[in-house]
Amino acid sequence: MNIAAVSKEIETLRDEMVETLIELIKIPAISPDSDGEGEYDKAMKLLEIIKDWPFDKIERYDAPDKRAKNGVRPNILAYYYGEKGEESPRLWILTHLDVVPPGDLRKWTVTKPFEPIVIDGKVYGRGSEDNGQSLVASLYAVRALMNLGIRPKRTIILAFVSDEETGSKYGLEWLMKEHPELFKKDDLVLVPDGGNEEGTFIEIAEKSILWMKVKVRGKQVHASMPGLGLNAHRVALNYAKELDEFLHGKYNAKDNLFDPSESTFEPTMGGNPSDAPNIAPGEHEIVFDCRVLPQYALDDILTDAKKLAREIEEKYKKEVNGEVLPKIELEVLQRLDAPEPTPKDSEIVKLLQKAIKELRGKEATIGGIGGGTFAAYFRKLGIPAVVWATLDERAHQPNEYAKIDNMIEDAKIMALLALL
């Protein structure tokens, strides 16, 4: 194994890597859930880029979604076999094709979201860091091995999947449900979609995720005569305050594996149809983003939230035009129950620690996060997975960028993982 030669080869590919990242950023890949067309065009561009590369097998799996361009959400698997061919142990590296919407365009001051530009060693554009940087790094980690004629110890499976940003229903979750034969218990999995600026944090655990919409219905009325209706806005504010305090009080354990160490319950979105200062609205919605330590059951949180809803309904109970109001409903927008963490002494953790030590001379730390990644789906299958990358953490922000040096250096780590 000559990692020095592989690292040198990756360095020679720097300009090509930057150009590939630029070409991919130019193509919006926004979910239909966020009023986009999906990932089709970006997937086709990726397939065009790698069509002449000597992968041993490239497979495309289209999840049907009539809302998306051409009615599908593409998922691509590219295989580069190890030294024992198809019998080699396997390493997955998973990245996602989709990106979040640009947000407020006025805050993009360096360039427009899908008009990438290189400044001071950084590539700016939506999706540059999340997840373009790691996608390109994984591609060229393999390309360097191909160029040198090296067959790694482990077969590398590069997975480029859809729908990570809005729940994975048409991406990894769909693949695991519809094609379980693709996954093996002894696979190793790297998800380069989280990390820190030094590239020394290895994520082995995630909190459970619950996105919960609270919908309150009252009776719209002129604000000067509130007795004739029921102000849903007031009821919703009271409920949100009570729920916020209750959840933080009951589910208050700490686990230092995570940062932050406690469960979080954040009201994030809200609103009502009132369009004038003198209208007391008859409807109001509030969304809670809950990131919950694995020791707690999401069903218990939902039960508590529903019980409190009944109590608040009773508190404001009123008959209006023959109907008893208010009505409080809970809708689960997204739910992911945290699986058991990847063991600290699992092979993928030890290999990644070794690669970071060898190439960077640094000791990697291990911990958990509040966000959700692909790793959770593998952990549910009992397949050890880690999340790692070197990131400036510009994801989902205006003026998002990928640092070119991070992309190059992470490609070296990925290549070494397959060689160890």
TrEMBL record:
Family annotation (Pfam families): M20_dimer, Peptidase_M20
SUPFAM superfamilies reported in the protein's UniProt record: Bacterial exopeptidase dimerisation domain, Zn-dependent exopeptidases
InterPro entries (alphabetical): ArgE/DapE, Bact_exopeptidase_dim_dom, Peptidase_M20, Peptidase_M20_dimer, Peptidase_M20A
Residues of the Peptidase M20 dimerisation domain: 204-316
Signal peptide residues on this chain, from the entry's feature table: none
Keywords assigned: Cobalt, Hydrolase, Metal-binding, Zinc
Cofactors (names): Co(2+); Zn(2+)
A GO term, aspect molecular function: hydrolase activity
Gene3D superfamilies listed in its UniProt record: 3.30.70.360, Zn peptidases
Top-level lineage group: Archaea
Similarity-based family: Belongs to the peptidase M20A family.
NCBIfam families with a match to the protein in the record: DapE-ArgE, PRK13983.1
Protein name (Swiss-Prot/TrEMBL): M20 family metallo-hydrolase
Organism, scientific name: Thermococcus argininiproducens
